[in-house]
């Protein structure tokens, strides 16, 4: 057919806009968005004609064009950041937003979003006035620290801590603790950014108290410890504890700071999990400033918490960077609600999703795997062997890197043994209305069930929408 005739078979923008299929679309998305989608749909059809000298299949008649336009409007409204089922086996997955929030935090955030809140307003007129007040009071109670400060994340916490305490001076750190957290966060770079001069002491595997001692002189501003959260050195090793460092530093009138990375406000070992240093232990040992993340093991929103001596915290609160790094009302609401859960420690395993998932008994996941096997087997189809298998979950976010938690998974292997067949299944799972994120390992696709809490929603999500009713 001649090109001209093909173009002529496409309706005008106005005509397509008035298609009865699109009446509801106007109600839902407005006429401007629909007009744009109709124009783009017709443009795309014309481009197809130009390129292939044929009408695209989806533009065969006006009904189909209207449908295509309607889909285009809807997909423009589809959020790019979407909920997923995290069956990757990593509980605190940084790329998946780390800690899921407790219900109490979700409620507190939605109130803070909808209404005016007492962010920096004292109802009793006491004039405390700063936005970290509520969090600081909670952290004092939970950790025994004199005061606390909240910024956007732990990287920001380390930056403002160093800038306040030791700008223009030397900061002594063990060579074994010059951590790279990922991205551009490397301890030596952060030091430079904060205007501090890094003084490395000891060796990668062994650092002694005398190494710190020999590095102290008139220009020293701080002795610093960094928790090596994302790697582990084994063998012939020695490091100096915070308690020893505090004694040495305070003899010289110097402060000690420690970046715990994750930090855990409860004793994880009591829950059968690998032990992680606790901020309150550091405070008890006399450390002047302790920093840790809000969205790692604490199970709250992205935030960086600094606790410690009031005189230092007051200086940090007054540093110009604080204004640049301060948290908004939503973060503070989520954090306050999360920390309040810690006031009822015996309920924490139920109420805090991170802890609930980390402590799920393996038998529970094993039973769940047995329940889900048939459904997932038929979802995958005859090209795959579907099975249940024991596996090991990771905590994630650089927390406790070498420790794994016994879990249970559904596994798929491709009968044709091809990686591309397996990848296609992984893609099908990611294309579900709520994408399902698994992990390819050992020639299999693994769905680690540790983080699968809403089983009914998961099963409904596997059904194609038109078979639902
Ligand atoms: C994770 C981590 C950080 C960075 O914390 P964010 O909250 O991700 O900014 C800094 N230091 C250590 C030791 C960490 O483990």
Terminal CA distance reads 42 Å
CATH superfamily of the largest domain: Type I PLP-dependent aspartate aminotransferase-like (Major domain)
Ligand set:
pyridoxal-5'-phosphate
Major beta sheet summary: 7 strands, mixed
Total discrete domains: 3
Shape: globular
Task: State the helix count.
Answer: 20
The CATH class name of the largest domain reads Alpha Beta
What would the average pLDDT be, to the nearest integer?
94
Rounded to the nearest angstrom, the radius of gyration is 28 Å
Pfam family, one: Se-cys_synth_N
Family: Belongs to the SelA family.
Domain L-seryl-tRNA selenium transferase N-terminal: 7-46
Pathway: Aminoacyl-tRNA biosynthesis; selenocysteinyl-tRNA(Sec) biosynthesis; selenocysteinyl-tRNA(Sec) from L-seryl-tRNA(Sec) (bacterial route): step 1/1
Molecular structure report:
The longest helix is centred in the first third of the chain and has 22 residues, at 31-52. The strands form four sheets. A seven-stranded mixed β-sheet has the order 2-10-9-8-7-3-6, sandwiched between helices. The protein has 469 residues and is an alpha/beta fold. It folds into three domains: 3-77, no CATH class; 85-94 and 357-462, Aspartate Aminotransferase, domain 1 (Alpha-Beta Complex); 103-347, Aspartate Aminotransferase, domain 2 (3-Layer(aba) Sandwich). It contains 20 helices and 15 strands. Helix 3 crosses helix 4 (31-52). Helix content is 42%, strand content 18%. A hairpin with a 2-residue loop joins strand 4 (180-182) and strand 5 (185-186). Pyridoxal-5'-phosphate binds at residues 153-155, 158, 179, 181, 185, 226-227, 229, 259, 261-262, 293, 304, 398.
């Amino acid at each position: 057919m001649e090109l001209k005739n093909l173009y002529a078979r496409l309706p005008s923008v106005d005509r397509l806009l008035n298609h009865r299929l699109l009446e509801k679309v106007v109600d839902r998305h407005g006429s401007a968005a629909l007009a744009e989608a109709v124009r783009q749909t017709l443009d795309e059809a014309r481009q197809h004609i130009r390129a292939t000298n044929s009408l695209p299949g989806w533009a065969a008649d006006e009904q189909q064009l209207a449908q295509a336009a309607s889909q285009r409007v809807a997909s423009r409204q589809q959020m790019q950041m979407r909920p997923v089922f995290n069956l990757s086996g990593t509980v605190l997955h940084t790329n998946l937003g780390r800690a899921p929030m407790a219900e109490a935090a979700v409620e507190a955030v939605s109130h803070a979003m909808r209404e005016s809140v007492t962010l920096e307003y004292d109802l009793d007129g006491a004039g405390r006035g700063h936005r970290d007040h509520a969090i600081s009071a909670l952290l004092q109670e939970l950790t025994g620290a004199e005061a606390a400060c909240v910024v956007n994340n732990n990287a920001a916490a380390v930056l403002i801590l160093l800038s306040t305490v030791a700008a223009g001076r030397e900061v002594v750190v063990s060579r074994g603790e010059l951590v790279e957290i990922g991205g551009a966060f490397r301890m030596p770079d952060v030091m430079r950014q904060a205007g501090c001069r890094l003084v490395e002491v000891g060796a990668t595997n062994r650092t002694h108290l005398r190494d710190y001692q020999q590095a102290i002189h008139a220009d020293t501003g701080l002795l610093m410890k960094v928790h090596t959260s994302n790697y582990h050195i084994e063998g012939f090793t020695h490091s100096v504890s915070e308690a020893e460092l505090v004694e040495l530093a305070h003899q010289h009138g110097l402060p000690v700071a420690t970046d715990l990375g994750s930090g855990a406000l409860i004793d994880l070992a009591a829950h059968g999990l690998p032990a992680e240093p606790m901020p309150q232990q550091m405070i008890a040992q006399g450390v002047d400033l302790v920093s840790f993340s809000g969205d790692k093991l604490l199970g709250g929103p992205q935030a960086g918490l600094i606790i410690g001596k009031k005189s230092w915290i007051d200086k940090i609160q007054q540093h110009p960077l604080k204004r640049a790094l301060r948290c908004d009302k939503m973060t503070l609401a989520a954090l306050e609600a999360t920390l309040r859960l810690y006031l009822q420690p015996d309920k924490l395993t139920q109420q805090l999703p991170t802890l609930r998932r980390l402590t799920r008994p393996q038998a529970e996941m094993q039973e769940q795997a047995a329940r889900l096997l048939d459904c997932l087997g038929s979802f995958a189809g005859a090209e795959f062997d579907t099975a249940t298998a024991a596996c090991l979950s990771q905590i994630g976010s650089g927390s406790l890197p070498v420790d794994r938690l016994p879990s249970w998974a559904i596994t798929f292997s491709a009968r044709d043994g091809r990686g591309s067949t397996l990848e296609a299944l992984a893609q099908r799972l990611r294309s579900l209305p709520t994408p399902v994120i698994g992990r390819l390992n050992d020639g299999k696709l693994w769905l680690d069930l540790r983080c699968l809490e809403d089983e009914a929603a998961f099963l409904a999500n596997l059904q194609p929408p038109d078979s639902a009713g």
